[in-house]
From TrEMBL:
Source species of the chain: Ramalina farinacea
Domain of life according to the entry: Eukaryota
Protein name as it appears in the record: Bet v1-like protein
Bilayer-spanning residue ranges: none
Pfam families: Polyketide_cyc2 (PF10604)
Length: 194
């Protein structure tokens, strides 16, 4: 009898303690302001209503220094709870998965050695098809699948092999969040010294 694990959506959480007060960090956590701290972004601008978005919807176009353009929609924002949630609604080049919803959340550290600092988390919840973005032949090459002359698979591919290759998108997102959190810390600390 074969049993299968239930499908799950991959998610990540990266975090940092930034040695700056909550106010210095929180004022930067607005989609149009991300290029002021994130070194991978070259610009952010609101999409005009003429682009097919409603004036009531906050959609920002992020242009990355590598040429990637993403339209991100603010899904939720709380000045009371200090978080923002956004989703990528379009990307050029296209994403290799259906979607991702991200949240940046800040907390003021109120006691201990880090008192006066800010604890920040940046999460990402990906659609279940988030993978390395490869077609079947590329997957098989990456996994070392061998076929005989009739096309039958010679070696079975294990679930661990599949997971190892599938982590491309997730690891890339993890790296980008770590980079952005380090950039946020530099900017917030500099702003706090002003």
């Amino acid at each position: 009898m074969t049993t299968h694990a239930p499908p799950t959506a991959p998610s990540i959480t990266e975090s940092a303690v930034i040695p700056a007060p909550l106010a210095s960090v929180w004022h930067l956590i607005k989609l149009p302001l991300f290029p002021t701290f994130w070194s991978s972004l070259s610009s952010a601008s609101p999409l005009p209503a003429s682009s097919g978005t409603s004036p009531e919807v906050d959609v920002i176009r992020w242009v990355f220094k590598d040429g990637t353009t993403q339209d991100v929609k603010q899904e939720e924002h709380s000045a009371l709870e200090h978080y923002i949630t956004y989703s990528v609604i379009s990307s050029e080049p296209a994403l290799s998965y259906s979607g991702v919803v991200s949240t940046v959340r800040c907390w003021g550290v109120t006691s201990g050695e880090q008192q006066g600092s800010t604890f920040v988390t940046w999460t990402g919840s990906f659609s279940g098809d988030a993978d390395a973005g490869n077609d079947v032949e590329e997957w098989e090459m990456m996994l070392g699948v061998q076929r005989d002359i009739t096309g039958a698979v010679v070696d079975e591919v294990t679930k661990a092999d599949y997971v190892r290759v599938r982590t491309g998108v997730i690891e890339d997102a993890r790296f980008k969040r770590k980079e952005a959190l380090a950039d946020l810390a530099k900017k917030a600390v500099a702003d706090a010294k002003k």
